Amino acid sequence: MLTVEKAICMITDAIPSVDREIVQLHQASGRVLQQRVKAERDQPPFDRVTMDGIAIKFDAFTKGITEFAIKGTQQAGDQVHRLCQANDCLEIMTGSVLPKGSDCVVPVERISIKNDHAILENGYLPERNQFIHPQGSDHEKGHVILRPGQVISPMDIAIIASCGLESVQVSKQPTIQLISTGNELVDPGKKIEAHQIRMSNGPALNAMLTRHGFFNTTHEHLVDDQDILEKRLEKILAENEVIVLSGGVSMGKADYVPEVLTKLGVKIVFHKISQQPGKPMWFGIGPAGQQVFALPGNPVSTIVCCRHYVIPALLHAAGRAKTQSEFAVLAEEVTCSSKLTCFMPVRISCSADGFINATPVPTNTSGDFTSLTGTDGYVELAKENGFFDAGAIVPIHRWTIS
Question: Are 57 and 83 in contact (CB under 8 A)?
Fold first, then answer.
């Protein structure tokens, strides 16, 4: 059976990269950057004052001057002033340009003012260039600050704006259709019978996608009827770039999804992975290059497969830079009953020596999604080893890819 590693490689090789588009700055947060962002000017663009107080010539202090005549005020946004005489000073505000001729800022807490003179606190010893943020010390004009492949954070928005850009090039959002299959499913808020269950996979998948920056997503429920599935999926394939189905991919008599997809021209890439939960997962490419992920219907399987395959595939197609692998120390021993790669939900904590500890949270079958609340992700336990000691170092995958 297909290994987890091989399944990831086959998905990556099969999916095309998405197009690019220009968006306004207020729409860019969470998107994948697709251009270099260069500094418009030196940062800071001038010698910047970092404390409220007075600006003086340091040499004046070294010559014994501790009382300075106040000759004006330099506020943030003012044109730069000049300090002319050694025994003069200018009142300055945080963020203002350092007045020409000065090279020392004395904080307001260290002075007293009397008769338009600023008097240094008795015994206070200032230093040359103190409380001055030098021009270009963060970066110089033309320096590449942001590069393609990173997800734009709120801090990056500040950087892009500081570079004078009101719009930026990002990866285009794919159109994603989520489909929950099953006669037993009932939406929240609707009347439910004893033999039915609530719709939960669709909302969970939508939440996971939006958390990772994929907002162009809709959800639909389809019953286990072959004709209905074929008719709707044909239209859905024509209107979307990515289709993610939940349910209908196992070996039951009502598991029509693989057959219907094949009939509609979706070329199968693989069906079934050597893992638990999520073994029946199906992946294929549609006639127009659509990516079709058919996930097992049990909730834990659905959530794990979405996090392990769908999200990384979409981020890869968007040009997201690859993140580093992460490892954790098992806080307890774990036994895996099947000879499959085991994805075990865990809670994460940090030890006193700085290691990431992962405490297993076994689920009561792959339908027990309530056990996932409070977990931080899952560890990947290799199928070659059925027993893992406490203290074993294993790969960990957080629910949210940072």
Answer: yes
Structure tokens at 339: 């000879």
119 bridge partner residues: 67, 112
Given the DSSP bridges, would you call strands 356-360 and 327-330 parallel, antiparallel or unpaired? parallel
Confidence band (pLDDT; 50, 70, 90) for 386?
confident
Does 299 sit behind a cis peptide bond, omega within 30 degrees of 0 on the bond before it?
no
Amino acid occupying residue 136: G
The CA distance from 114 to 278, in Å, is 77
Give the whole-angstrom CA distance, residue 170 versus residue 143: 20
Residue type, 377: G
Cα–Cα distance for residue pair 188/202, rounded to 1 Å: 11
Residue-by-residue DSSP string for 22-52: EEEGGG-TTSBB-S-EE-SS-BSSS-EE-SS
Q: How far apart are CA 106 and CA 161, in angstroms?
A: 32
Q: Give residue-wise pLDDT tens across range 332-356.
A: 999 987 789 999 999 999 988 889 9
> Which one, of 159, 153, 155, 157, lies nearest residue 139 by Cα?
159
For 268-301, how does the pLDDT look when each residue is reduced to its tens digit (9 = 90+)? Answer: 999 999 999 999 999 999 999 999 999 999 999 9
DSSP 255-317: --HHHHHHHTTPEEEEE-BSEES-TT-EEEE-TTS-EEEEE-SSHHHHHHHIIIIIHHHHHHH
Contact indicator for 36, 163 with CB cutoff of 8 Å: no
Calculate ∠ Cα 364-360-370, nearest 5°: 40
Handedness of CA 191, 195, 199, 204 (dihedral sign): positive
Q: Token pair for residue 82?
A: 């000049």
On the 0-12 / 13-18 / 19+ scale of CB atoms within 10 A, 166 is: exposed
Burial class (CB in 10 A: 0-12, 13-18, 19+), 16: exposed
* pTM metric for this prediction: 0.87
Contact 343, 304 (CB under 8 A): yes
Quote the CA–CA distance of 402 and 395 in Å, as a whole number: 16
